Amino acid sequence: MPRPNTQLRRSAVALAAVLALAGCTTPDAPSATETPTSSGTPAPSGSAAPTPAPTEEPLPFEAACADLITLDQMYEFNPNFGEAPGFEPESDDLVAVADAQGTVCGWSNQTSGDLIGLGVATLPGNAFAAQVGRAAVDSTAVPTYGTPPEVEGFFSQSGGVGRAQVFADGYWIVLESPEFLEPGDAEPLVTAVRSNLAAR
């Protein structure tokens, strides 16, 4: 039978151990299941937000139709053509010229009713290059409209309408008409427009 003082000593040691274990816990510490509040700073994702591409401002071009092709130049091309003041662009290219804040003009054959449409626009760098690329894919290159790379000329025909496109000196020039059966048919007017633009 243990002596009383030994039993008391064991009880004191056990009590001290219990108190020591109780002192190891911190009541204010969050439990493992607690989630951080919304006020915490989120960790960086590791990738910055993409920088938006700069937008190109349009370059409006405005001119009188008689300054782009004079009455004498049109008469020399075909005396049956006169101005068509109510002309409205319908083809994709002429509509695109109008949307780019360019100038669109029309002339009508007084005998056949055939139209000649002209569009001239000045485009920002990327838009200009995109139009040249599209014309190169959709049309045939025409070196007689001017010497590349200073002048890029193209011709195409669809639906009975011939279309000449010329890119030179920052201008996008579109000429289209049923009168243009081949590239050479539009060449006199291409030359006239380019000459008049150079004189501005």
UniProtKB/TrEMBL annotation:
Keywords: ATP-binding, Nucleotide-binding, Signal. Residues 25-58 are annotated as: Disordered. One of its GO terms (molecular function) is ATP binding. Residues 1-22 form the signal peptide. Residues 25-50 have a biased composition (Low complexity). This is Iron ABC transporter ATP-binding protein. It comes from Agromyces indicus.
